[in-house]
Amino acid sequence: MNIREIFDSMDYGPAPEGSSEALAWIANHKGRFGHWVGGRFTAPGETFATRNPANGQVLAEVTQGSAADVDAAVKAARGAQAKWARMPGFERAKVLYALARLVQKNARLLAVLETLDNGKPIREARDIDIPLVARHFYYHAGLAQLLDAELPGMEALGVCGAVIPWNFPLLMLAWKVAPALAAGNTVVLKPAEYTPLTALLFAELSVQAGLPKGVLNIVTGDGATGAALVDHPDVNKIAFTGSTSVGKKIRAATAGTGKALTLELGGKSPYIVFDDADLDSAIEGLVDAIWFNQGQVCCAGSRLLVQEGVAERFHEKLKRRMGDLRVGDPLDKCIDVGAVVDPVQLETITRLVEASDGEKFRAPCALPEGGCFCPPTLITGLSAASPLMQEEIFGPVLVSMTFRTPAEAVELANNTRYGLAATVWTENVNLALDIAPKIKAGVVWVNATNLFDAAAGFGGVRESGFGREGGWEGLLAYLKPSGQTKPLKPVAAVAAPSEPLVEGIDRTAKLFIGGKQARPDGGYSQAIYSAKGKLLGQVGIGNRKDIRNAVEAAHAAKGWGKATGALRGQVLYYLAENLSARASEFAGRLRDLTGRSGEEEVQTAIRRLFTYAAWADKYDGAAKSVPLRGVALAMNEPCGVVGIIAPDESPVLGAISLLAPAIAMGNTCVLVPSSVAPLAMTDFYQVLETSDVPGGVINIVTGPHGELAKTLAGHMDVDAVWCFGAGALSKTVESEAAGNVKRTWVNHGQATDWATAEGPAFLRAATEVKTIWVPYGEG
Amino acid sequence: MQTMTDNPMRTQLPQVAHARNPGMALDLDWVAAVQANTSAIERRAASLPGRRSVKKEFQAAWLLKAISLIDLTTLSGDDTVGRVQRLCAKARQPVRAEMLEALGMPGLTTGAVCVYHEMVETAVRALEGTNIPVAAVSTGFPAGLSPFHLRIAEIGESVKAGAREIDIVISRRHALTGNWQALYGEMAEMRAACGEAHVKAILATGELGSLRNVARASLVCMMAGADFIKTSTGKESVNATLPVSLVMIRAIREYEARTGFKVGYKPAGGIAKAKDALVYLSLMKDELGHPWLQPDLFRFGASSLLGDIERQLEHHLTGRYSAGYRHAMG
């Protein structure tokens, strides 16, 4: 076209970003890469190709990491860890600062390489991914600097294994590497098979930041390489971002190993548009929600819920907007949607869309020949039961449904196995601030979408995983209390004496469910004897059905989580008051059960109730300093229903130490008390009944730990399980929890000093941090 | 989408290809329902320049398009006949003839010339033989606080003097106090006073307090029959901005969707760089479509923009950066 013709057509024309520097970097490595281990590239081994999804061309050959490669990398990381952790925070901060600077100084090279390898539009790599990477390292340079002063008594976990996805290759590296390094860990990272190149470039650049050898190691490869890293016995933590199905496998594989774990998994995030929203802005938000990175975003607003009265108009506007989207060469600076990462992914998306019986609208935009291009798609006319309203597509496909009322919007939003992110559009501040806390998600954006910052926690609930990345809360996932732990010594139950001493009037302790005593479903009980052979009483042997009933009762009591912290505090004080009134009775019971004086234990338990009565209205959230005119609120929300396996030792204090923080933060609980001294907590029923604890807030099921822990951990409607029982219970809980990826907190067979077991670690376990982004402004 | 012949020599007169907006009854429910979320609009505006890029001959063609859309403007107390004649000469020949020849676009002119009433006759004479219309700012420009009957009379005088476009200013106080009925009435009378001349409603967005008010004022002016809505007089402390533009063109889109009538848009003030002009053009193209890249539905109110475009065009032709003195003054 000549200028005259363009003047008439006003077409955009091509605006390609140059790729010669990035290709030259690959060529300098002769197009073949080994792993980055101990501060240098290893010789390439057996390799596979990484391709440019926009044209299918091979970019480079990278090495398929073997178990031996992983082992070498872990050894390098282990070798470097102690020294790295011993460095003053300032020394680590300097390195992280230099890494941030290096990312900025090589921003164009990194952005172009990312786009070549991944297919995302160069605008996104240049304006979003790479600046966020730099920001993440800056922020964590600050955390490294402040760590010693602000988090005393904490230390690094050791060697962290990171397995990251292909959708934000370098950004996910930053999310894993920056906090790990800031906290004094060393890292072995496995980038995604499709997108290994920017990680290798970053590793090479890290030398210029003075990063000591072995602190960061990159092993490339496919899922088998990742599995080798996950299974490696000398790795202390696995941080994984990727699909829910792989996340579940990793949960099961690491169960009982003592490895720390954070999982950031899939989502089907609701995008709620109320009828009073700025509809045009909500539509632009959708472009950023579902057509950002071709929809290959774990937190993509992929499930549109629009209020019925404006739905038709909204869909019309949306379709018009979709017509303006430009799909094309990812290196073109004038396109909106690039290439899907791989033909396999394109095929999956296409298959899912084809199978849907909804009304499909594909954006009428030209698709380039060849390459993995997928038209932006809207599917309307679906119901909650439609597979595409439930399944993650991970592509540029938006599904839509309508709702009638705010309550129905919340119900629909939460009608999902996932809980990563949500978006709410309304001009009504009352509505926005009412809805945001009601949505099951780790992140809620009000009148915005896909806002990210290193200072704000990101992560999910339910099958979207657990753990937060970003902020102080993210750093804590790379730390543990310093000091050595001791193995837990099992406490044996008193065996039935040949001639039990029976005296007094029979007291029958049933189970405590929904505020009432209930007979065990199985109809069996177990006799409990004192150390001296006295029959102390019988306790019910709870079974699966009792757990089911208790969980139902705990759900029915969810109003507890909405009660004010002040009110929960009052109830905890009242519990302390009533326990104190019966202190000698409990102490006597403990003496009978354990053969030792129980006075101190009861007094400590009373103090503990006071501690959490105090915390109930003081565990404040935070307003994060994000680079935005607005607030990012970090809200501490209750996890929901928490299953608690209390320790066998310290039968009162152990149970109270776990129950009190859980209910103080608004959770409801199913407690399985000490299996050797359960009567200590069945006596507690009367304390609960006289202390205004609403029925169902605390449910107590006595019985064998093994079976009950397994049922609780496997229960799909339990949000978290804490297990301080003995033996192999930790493994049971962690592997059963893989079913719905619930949060677990277990002792891994290590002893807890219940006399001092209180404080922030308990409060953190009892809460989920929800980040609510509220940009504001009028003018 | 309607396609049109883009002969640079074709008439610049408005509403030739499209039916003129007749206005409609004031719909206060619609006005009240208008929302504009400031921070979301600002984020969209901030990302716009990064989302679109035109290069090489495409950029040259787009810049030439921008020239065809400029209301070349002088609105100064020291305007004289000579000054206005010089401006009109520049409007007739906005770029050196041999450059236009080389670019394949001989005969290109600006969209219009915009002056105060007293300069209308001078401009009309200076532009004789061209199709370049003269626009007059009117109605007590820039504050719009002279007696209402005089403001209406001023329109008639300017039309009589040969202005084919009248840029009126609205009473900001009506928008600021939510008196949409008064704004509607004022606008409708001004539109009537314009007769065949087409009317651009200057909202003075920098003085309306909020984007929501900008959206509502835009809508009310269109309901009252505005042919164009325009951001600013150029005399407010804040003139055309991308967020304001986004709000106004969304209002235009909504108005067309509901009534079928196309209303034009004119950002004015603050657009001084070729790059800014490209961003505005891509905004119009993406948000409203091709018809809004023509002078009957889109104008730039600008005085120094042309100079920067000339330098960019010479750079395109020669590969060397240009200098201001190589291009004729306006």
Report on the structure:
- The complex is a heterodimer of chains A (779) and B (330).
- Chain A is an alpha/beta fold.
- In chain A, β8 (186-190), α8 and β9 (216-218) form a beta-alpha-beta unit.
- Chain A is globular, with a radius of gyration of 28 Å.
- The mean pLDDT of chain A is 97.
- Chain B is α/β, with parallel strands linked by helices and 330 residues long.
- Chain B has a single domain (24-318), classed as Aldolase class I (TIM Barrel), CATH 3.20.20.70.
- Chain B is 46% helix and 9% strand.
- In chain B, β6, α11 and β7 form a beta-alpha-beta unit.
- Classes of the chains: A alpha/beta (779), B alpha/beta (330).
- Chain B: Belongs to the DeoC/FbaB aldolase family. DeoC type 2 subfamily.
- Chain B: Its EC number is 4.1.2.4.
Largest interface: A-B, 40 and 44 residues
Oligomer: heterodimer
Question: What percent of residues of chain B adopt helix (DSSP H or I)?
Answer: 40-55%
Give the overall shape of chain A, derived from the CA principal axes.
globular
Query: Briefly, what CATH class of chain B?
Result: Alpha Beta
Number-wise, the strands of chain A total 33
General form of chain B:
globular
Strand content of chain B: 5-15%
Which strand order does the major sheet of chain B show?
7-6-5-4-3-2-1-8
Could you state the order of secondary-structure elements of chain B as H and E? HHHEHHEHEHEHHEHEHEHEH
> What distance separates the N and C termini of chain B?
36 Å
CATH superfamily heading of chain B? Aldolase class I
What characterizes the major β-sheet of chain A? 10 strands, mixed
How are the SSEs placed, and which strands pair?
The complex is a heterodimer of chains A (779) and B (330).
Chain A: H1 3-9, H2 20-28, E1 32-33, E2 36-37, E3 40-41, E4 47-51, E5 58-63, H3 67-86, H4 89-105, H5 107-118, H6 122-150, E6 154-156, E7 159-163, H7 169-182, E8 186-190, H8 197-206, E9 216-218, H9 223-231, E10 237-241, H10 244-254, E11 260-264, E12 269-273, H11 279-290, E13 301-307, H12 308-323, H13 343-355, E14 359-362, E15 377-380, H14 387-390, E16 397-403, H15 406-413, E17 421-425, H16 429-438, E18 443-446, E19 465-466, H17 471-476, E20 479-481, E21 508-509, E22 511-513, E23 516-518, E24 525-529, E25 535-540, H18 544-556, H19 559-562, H20 565-581, H21 583-594, H22 599-615, E26 622-624, E27 630-638, E28 641-645, H23 653-664, E29 668-672, H24 679-682, H25 684-689, E30 698-700, H26 705-714, E31 720-723, H27 729-737, E32 743-746, H28 760-765, E33 767-775
Parallel strand pairs in A: 1-5, 7-8, 7-10, 8-9, 10-11, 12-13, 12-17, 13-16, 15-16, 17-18, 18-33, 21-25, 28-29, 28-31, 29-30, 31-32
Antiparallel strand pairs in A: 2-3, 4-5, 6-20, 11-19, 14-15, 22-23, 24-25, 26-27, 27-33
Helix pairs in contact in A: 4-6, 5-6, 5-8, 6-7, 10-27, 11-12, 20-22, 21-22, 22-23, 26-27
Chain B: H1 28-33, H2 38-51, H3 56-68, E1 70-73, H4 81-92, H5 97-103, E2 112-115, H6 120-126, E3 134-137, H7 148-160, E4 165-169, H8 172-176, H9 180-194, E5 198-202, H10 211-223, E6 228-230, H11 242-259, E7 264-266, H12 274-287, E8 300-302, H13 305-318
Parallel strand pairs in B: 1-2, 1-8, 2-3, 3-4, 4-5, 5-6, 6-7
